[in-house]
Amino acid sequence: MTALETIGKIGTDAVKELRLQKLRSGYPFMINSNDLESRKFYLEFPDGTIQLACLEKDAKEFVMIQKLSTAEAQALRAKYGFSQL
Questions:
Q1: In the Cβ-directed half-sphere of 70, how many Cα atoms lie within 13 Å?
Q2: 72 contacts: CB under 8 Å, gap ≥ 6
Q3: In DSSP terms, which residues pair with 73 in a beta bridge?
Q4: What predicted TM-score, i.e. pTM, was given to this entire model?
Q5: Per-residue CA distances from 17 to 20, 26, 58, 59 (Å)
């Protein structure tokens, strides 16, 4: 493993641990994805649901767009290597 790969793994592991800490503490976790349009992101909630959300320009709050199905949520977690709580 190269130094860059090692640093990348450390960063990925830190994000995964932060996710678990946030969810176990009752807070949602934001998942950013390059597959989404600008200002769109996923919010994963402690109950296991994931919603697609958007931050409108100059808005102070985000808007929920849609709740992912159980299969879609599982696929998203698998894509990022996230475990189910």
A1: 1
A2: 50
A3: none
A4: 0.88
A5: 5, 14, 31, 30
Taking only the tens place, the pLDDT of each residue in 13-34 is 999 999 999 999 999 999 999 9
Amino acid letter for position 3 = A
Q: What is the CA radius of gyration of the chain?
A: 14
Note the pLDDT tens digit of each residue in 25-74: 999 999 999 999 999 999 999 999 999 999 988 878 889 999 999 999 99
For residue 43, give both structure tokens.
């919010």
The DSSP symbol for 25 reads: T
Token couple for 51:
């919603």
